Every structure is written in structure tokens, then in C-alpha cells.
Amino acid sequence: MPGSAGQLTAAGAAAPPPALTRRAFGVAGALLPLARLLAPGAVGAAPPPAPAAVREFALVAREVDLELRPGTTVRAWTYNGTVPGPELRVTEGDQVRITLKNELPAATSAHWHGIDVPVAMDGVPGLTQQAVPPGGTFVYEFTATNVGTRWYHSHQDAEVQVPLGLFGPVIVEPKAPESVRYDREYTFILSEWDLDLTPAVATGDASLPAPRSDVPLSKQLDYDLFLVNGKATEALPPIAVASGQRVRLRLINAGNLIHTVRGRGRPIKVVATDGNPVPPGVALPDEAATLGPSERVDLELLGGDSGGWTFEADVEHQMASGMTAGLR
Ligand SMILES: [Cu+2]
What we know:
Elements: E1 8-9, H1 18-38, E2 54-69, E3 72-79, E4 88-91, E5 95-102, E6 111-113, E7 137-143, E8 148-153, H2 158-161, E9 167-173, E10 184-193, H3 199-202, E11 225-228, E12 231-232, E13 246-253, E14 259-262, E15 268-273, E16 276-277, E17 285-286, E18 288-291, E19 296-302, E20 309-313, E21 324-327
Parallel strand pairs: 2-5, 4-9, 10-13
Antiparallel strand pairs: 1-7, 2-3, 5-7, 6-8, 8-9, 10-11, 11-12, 13-19, 14-18, 14-20, 15-16, 15-17, 15-19, 20-21
The structure holds copper (II) ion (CU).
Residues 111, 113, 153, 294 line the site of copper (II) ion.
């Protein structure tokens, strides 16, 4: 059946309409009450567990013009036309079904970083699936586990496809209410941009100029801009936190440099690392939190007790100078 989970759909083949897939999931749930009614001896038996909610998402990998800051527009590879791609917010236990359509001129994939998915759904071309060719689709299906701040990104030529913009957040919310309630919540993905890295480089039709940096895992990219949610730092809209408000910041490092968030002399409180909660007695306030490549940090902020925060690249490299963003 074309478009079923794990099946690669060739270029030109139509993906199943969302209504069809929803109905396919609904059938099993609809049959359950009937089965109970007909089953001998079923009277008085415990009701079956409610079927898991099905959450469907469509991701289209495509090339767009992206304005990093006024006057600087680049060609980016994106999920759904934005960098980062859309935030996929699900609840623990949900059945998640994500259809990836590839409108890029190169093969691609999507990998779910920090979520324990079945091997065939892990999105690693050459290992767990064939890369999705231009014009093709692939349906990823898994149960939402690993509560916390997760993310997704291309795992095909990741050293160029991720820096070109193929990444986004996945937030898995817990089924049970959390002990701490937040008034507001923000997700920030940190990354870098190399103006010499173009889609033509990613397709092999152009080369990067020499000399290049020695940053590992990055195809020796020389970064020009530090991005927060796809915007150069000076273009980042500040958030304002009212006095007494409790705010959660979910930070994800999708770049290749080490980034640090500082409390401008005020303490900040790390409440989760890589999506996993830090035990209360251990979540001591500190003046800085550091994120290596792919790492995540959740911070708790209390409005009114801080003069603001800064994000900055924390590497001893000339290209990191000026990579700072303010938040207040
Ligand atoms: Cu990853």
C-alpha cells in the first residue's frame, strides 16, 4: 500500500490523503466497543484502555529564500518553508504519523533526535531506510516517548543539510500534569550560518571556497552568523517576562559550535538537560549553561528577578566573535 508507514513512495506517486489515514486508525478504535459487546463473559470486565490519540503532521522539505536579517537573504533548505521547521508538539503515548515529502533537488530524510522510535523509523539513510529521493515521500510512525525537549533533522548529508536549515523542535509533553506549572514557554534553536554554503554546494554543483575552518563535523564551514530561531541575533525579537511569571525556555543547539546562555550576572536555573528533568535538589542556579552540538537545556526563569540573558558562541575562534543575542 503506497504511503504506509516506512514505505518509500517514488516520485510522482500520490501520498494518501490525510482523511484516509485518519480513518484507517479510527477503524481499530471503532471496532473495540463492538468486540466487547459480542465477547462472551465480557460483562463486568474492565473497559479497554482508550485508544491512543493519533497526531498527524506533514513536513515538506523545500528550498526557499530566507531573510536572516534585514539585507541578508539566503537560499535555505527547510521543512515547510521556515527555519526552524514547525514545532511538533505531542503528548506522551500519542501515535505520531509524519509524512515527509521531498521537494528538494537532493535526497533527504528526517531523524527524531532523542526519541526512541522503531529502527525502521529512525531516518538514517543507508542504515534504517533508503533516502527519500527528490519528489518522493516517506511516512514516519512512532509512539511519542521520551518526554521533554527533542528535535528532528535531516540525517542525509547532515553536515550540509542541517546547516542549510533542515531541523526543527519536537516537544513531548507528559501525560500526567507536571509538578511545576509555567506561565509561558518559549523554544529557541541555536545554529550558525555560513554564507558560502549554498544549495549548489549541497547538490555537488559548486564547491566551498578555501581555506575552511577546523570545526569538527561541519565540513569545515566558516560561520558568518549566529542564528536563534533562524534569525541573526540583531533581528531576534526580545521576549518580555512580567514580574512574578515563571517561564520555561527550551534551548536546542542545532549548530556545530558550543553555545552558552548567561544570566548577565544573575543566576539561571537548569531544569532539564537533553530533555530529561534534572532532580530538584540538583537543579542549582548557575550563571551560565553550555550547550554542545545537538544538546538541549531547559531553563526556568522568574520574571522580575533578572536583567536579561545573553546567548553567545563560546569557542575560541575568530568566527565566533559577535555571535551574541540578547534576551530580556
Ligand atoms: Cu540528531
